[in-house]
Amino acid sequence: MSEVAVPCEHKPVYSKHRFPKQIALGTCRGCHSVITAPRRKTWCSDACKKLYDPYWVKKAVVARDKHICQMCGTDIRAAYLAWRRAKPAGTYLQEEWRKARPREEYDHIVPFSEGGTTVVGNMRTLCSACHKKRTAEWRKAKKEKT
Questions:
Q1: Containing domain of residue 31, as a range?
Q2: pLDDT value at 10 more than 70
Q3: Are residues 68 and 113 in the same domain?
Q4: Helix, strand or coil, per DSSP, at residue 106
Q5: Is position 1 within any domain?
Q6: pLDDT band per the 50, 70, 90 thresholds, residue 17
Q7: 118: closest CA among 66, 51, 68?
Q8: Exposed, middle or buried: residue 107 (CB in 10 Å: 0-12, 13-18, 19+)?
Q9: Mean model confidence pLDDT for the chain
Q10: CA 57 to CA 35: how far, in whole Å?
Q11: How far apart are CA 12 and CA 72, in angstroms?
Q12: How many beta carbons lie within 10 A of that of residue 124, not counting itself?
């Protein structure tokens, strides 16, 4: 009973919380088709859920990118483990240490505000520093357009 996730021509409609929403009762959150399967209320199939549900999209991006920043090539997981081993003793130092935690972030290649969707093909893993840099560049470019 293996279902293959195939993108359809319909684009999901997102709520203000960036989660696909139902456009009508009994329709799929992702592809907007009528749900015919019994006991399903919001997704027409597991394949559609894995294609559009942000939780499953994130899991697929992690599996694809293997915790590697797609801009600078940093192994974020290895950096995090090294960070954990370097915990300092002093309270002040611990506060600074916490702020320096390597974090894995997920970036929309085509920004969400410009119509980019939360699907695997439009997402990538970035470290915090690269994500901040990318966001600053995008904001600067957006400001220059207006």
A1: 7-52
A2: no
A3: yes
A4: strand
A5: no
A6: low
A7: 51
A8: buried
A9: 84
A10: 21
A11: 31
A12: 21
Enter the pTM of the model: 0.75
Is residue 7 within 8 A of residue 51, CB to CB? The reply is yes
Query: In this structure, how many other beta carbons lie within 10 angstroms of the beta carbon of residue 126?
Result: 25
Closest CA to 69 of 56, 79, 58, 60: 79
76 lies in the same domain as 44 = no
33 and 73, same domain (yes or no): no
Stronger pLDDT, 17 or 44, i.e. the higher one: 44
Banded model confidence at residue 21, pLDDT cuts 50, 70, 90:
low
**15 found inside a domain:** yes
* Neighbouring-strand partners of residue 48: none
Interval 75-103 mean pLDDT: 87
User: How many domains does the structure of the chain reveal?
Assistant: 2
Q: Examine the domain organization and report whether 67 and 135 are in the same domain.
A: yes
